[in-house]
Amino acid sequence: MGMFSISAILMIAGSRGSYALAGAVVATGLAATALVAPWTARLVDRHGQARIAVPATAVALLGSLGLIACVHWNAPDWTLFASYAATATAPNTGGMARARWAHLLKDDPAALHTANSFEQATDELCFMLGPVLAAFLCTTLFPEAGTLIGGLLFMAGVLLLSAQRATEPPPTGRTTAKSPLRTPGIPPLLAVFLATGAVFGSLEVVTIAYADARGHASSAGVILGLQAAGSCAAGLAYGTLRVTGPAERRFRRCLAAMTALMALPWLTVATTGSLLFLAPALLLAGMATAPTMVTAMALVQHRTPQGRLNEGMTLAVTGLLGGIAGGSALGGWIAEHDPAAGTGLAPGTTGFAVPVAAAALALLIAAIRTNSRPPIDAL
């Protein structure tokens, strides 16, 4: 899944010569996913993972193949939007995996914490390596290779997961449980996910712009990879800890740590203006993101009504995607207009304030809203 966006951008921009068109197509796909994914997750909860995920993935794969065909045969631009929107049926495999762990380890909170930490570290690794693999395939084989191979890998992965029937949670059928959106404690968490997504989206864009302004655009991927590596390592380490105390308190502490560590890249570029020093700063900044996400997902698991778990976690991912899109747009605007110009600061410095502000907003929302819920014991 980490291959899809960059593969589509490289394929469309290479064929049509327009990054604006490519970005618009991908943004449309994200918007369609935000609308469709919760409904797909609701069907997964109601009818079972294998019964829904396989056909939903097949539809998404057809959308990817349609996009390839439209690009290859130079179809009108509107067909690109339509075909990429069809990929919105792709199920949230990370949510399905976490639902399995929650089902298997419902009586062992410590083991569930370790499993959730492992899943988060795996996510970080996949989204660190996915874009690298996609760029390699699109530039060394043919422009459509990233989308084609990514779609086939996704289909194969869902088939393998669906074949593991022994770990699949039983379908709930129709349930009278209220929607997660109407469950106390879930909407504030979704707002935190939105702000956290803005951290990720803005940090990626401003880092690329900062490296490009210094003539080292090719280094941006490596530098961002260090941030993901720091998060992956922290996620694995966090899974070995024995967590204690209310989860809400840990969540606020994680958000506070993320806010503080996200200030390191900003301070580094403001004082040194060096890519060499920015790399370790991003490595350290990434170390708070995985523990934050692990704790947030654990809160989603515990607050979501029984029988709606996939839907609840998919809504969380949707919030992240929305935040990433908004953070990318804001970070890109600030990087392009550069408010620091003429102030004596290095070009691009101001952009690194965006992830700090987004992290601080997430902390503020959590500090205000999570206090309205009874504390959850150690997960």
How many helical elements? 14
Report the order of strands and helices.
HHHHHHHHHHHHHH
Q: So what's the overall shape?
A: globular
Our estimate of the beta-strand percent is under 5%
Number of strands: 0
Spans of at least 5 consecutive residues whose pLDDT stays below 50 are 370-379
Cα-atom Rg, whole angstroms?
20 Å
Mean residue pLDDT: 81
Could you say which structural class the secondary elements and strand pairing correspond to? mainly alpha
Distance between the first and last residues' Cα: 28 Å
Percent of residues in helical segments?
over 70%
Main pleated sheet: none
Ordered list of secondary-structure elements with their pairings:
Layout: H1 4-16, H2 19-47, H3 49-72, H4 77-85, H5 93-104, H6 109-140, H7 145-163, H8 186-213, H9 220-240, H10 247-271, H11 275-285, H12 289-303, H13 309-337, H14 353-369
Helix pairs in contact: 1-2, 1-6, 1-7, 2-3, 2-4, 2-13, 3-4, 3-7, 5-6, 6-7, 6-9, 6-12, 8-9, 8-13, 8-14, 9-11, 9-12, 10-11, 10-12, 10-14
Describe this structure in words.
The chain has 379 residues and is mainly alpha-helical. It has 14 helices and no strands. It is globular and about 55 Å long. It starts with a helix and ends in a 10-residue tail after the last helix.
